[in-house]
Amino acid sequence: MAGLDWTYGVSTLRQWESADYEPSLPVSEKSNPLTRDIDRASAYSIVKMLQVCDSQMFQKEAGTIYQRLLSDQVVKTLMEVAKRVEVIIKDPQESCVVMSGCGTSGRLAFLISSGFNKALSQLNQSEVYSYIIAGGDRALLSSQEAPEDDPRLGVLNLKKVCEGKKRVLFIGISCGLSAPFVAGQLDFCLQHPEVYTPVLVGFNPAHQARDEPIQDCTFTFHSVVQRMQELAKSQKAFLINPAVGPEAISGSSRMKGGSATKILLEAAFSAAHAATSSNTPITHNGVLQHMMAYERTLAVTYSQTDGITTLVEAAGQSLQCSRHVYYLGWGSLALLGLIDASECSPTFGADYEDVRGFIRGGYRELNNNDGPLTSLGPKFSIAHEDFLHLILPCLTDKDTVLLIYTHSDDATEVGNMARRVREKTPNLHAVYHQADGDTAASLQQDDIKKLCLSTLKITWPQEALVSGTLQHMRELSTKLVLNAVSTGAHVLKGKIYQNHMIDLQVTNTKLYRRATRLLQKLSACPEEKCEEALLKAIYRVDMLTLEMTSSDITTHTCFARNSTKVVPLALVILLTGWSLVEAESHLKQQPIVREAVAQWMW
Ligand code: S6P
Fold this sequence. Notes:
By secondary structure, this protein is α/β, with parallel strands linked by helices. 51% of the residues lie in helices and 11% in strands.
């Protein structure tokens, strides 16, 4: 690929596509050959690996079974979806577009619906977008993995949002084509075609959709997809499921999965908005051009590898000495900070205090369905004022603070915040987006820059301003930078083994299965033995009772919510044959899991 000669040949870039590469796993769960050694890489190499991984999103179709982001069929389907959205925007009475997902997919549904509703309001048009996130609004800011397994809850949530509607375009997002919560909603749509048109967004080919039985249901995700495929022939349902390649950290769909969700849906909705506001027809080329603007976004963002590396190093050092990373953002970019921070706990088993996001204007700016959530606990304090009251007094130079803003945000306000932080720590950095040739902004920017240890300045060409894609590009760019910072920092902290997160939470079926597979891969023990060790670690016993072994996975995952270090413990038990107490004490002495298990794995 042009411009991506960084140590990789085309065969390595495309190795995951080969039929015999981890054949039992769907793309979204495969491990990426490019990042096999990410756990031993420098900050610079980590950023480079993430760049190459992200570039896989835009690889062209190459005669394999995989459709890609820019494939003809994908663009065609996006056009059809855009046309449905156009109809709804023009006639919003009793119609709506609902996006729904779990974890990151739900957070993206929220981000995208907020952005496009705002755009409609600015044109004095009715808002038509709604979002659903499994676990409700608290899941926007914290890890709620269990509701993902609940198809009935999905349906209840959908019915509530669509009450009184006569026409609903339902967009279910599940990167792995796996979440029962979304499968339940799609099944419900299929049963009520007079109201609902279902659209599925995900990043595995249809045959790789999860086929595991769902408790008390007659369908699986896979069977729902098959029914949708049938209806797709007559455009009564739509599947948008290109492959974007395995994630840099195996299964971490918050990364490419989240980015690609944003790219696809924004391309479709932007086309619909242009069609209604300026009578621009929805064309193949229009949608394609919009998507290619995101490819340029990757290039613009990663042209700042040194700047991103500096941020990864700073954040990594903070986490390594058990200190914290804070994102202080303005506008929609702050949302990406909140989202990135909230994902560190499910992805890396991090504490909510390790990486935290704050947004100017707090819940007023967030404008979420349920309003302020501050009463739910300290992790739901998200305003800049909260940062000033709760965090600033205890800030030290071991903490890393990132200001995230653009040239259109209030520079005086950013400057004031920078000064307050600077009084406490020099470890202050900025991620700043400006438009090409914007000299007025750069004068005030100079003052802020002087207060910061480093400034990652991302300059957007004027054409982005004209085409109206600037906000989307800045958001994706910020997402890539923050994903790199939080992922890189946790890698440097030793949270990853090869490219696997070992200390994953086992709080839903998908994660339970992933944990068992990981134990098999790392211990080379049979599945049965691995599951046994996993259960011992979940229930904290050396001998499993009949009640434990005969319970279903939901019971195990519920119990696992209160257990820590489950997978590392199971792994040590498998590798050493030690008792639970011995394994626990070993992990206490060596909390870096990679180091704790390394001696048995080489
Ligand atoms: C992944 C993230 C998870 C997923 C969630 C939904 O990095 O931590 O919360 O977003 O499990 O996955 P999916 O495949 O249904 O979009």
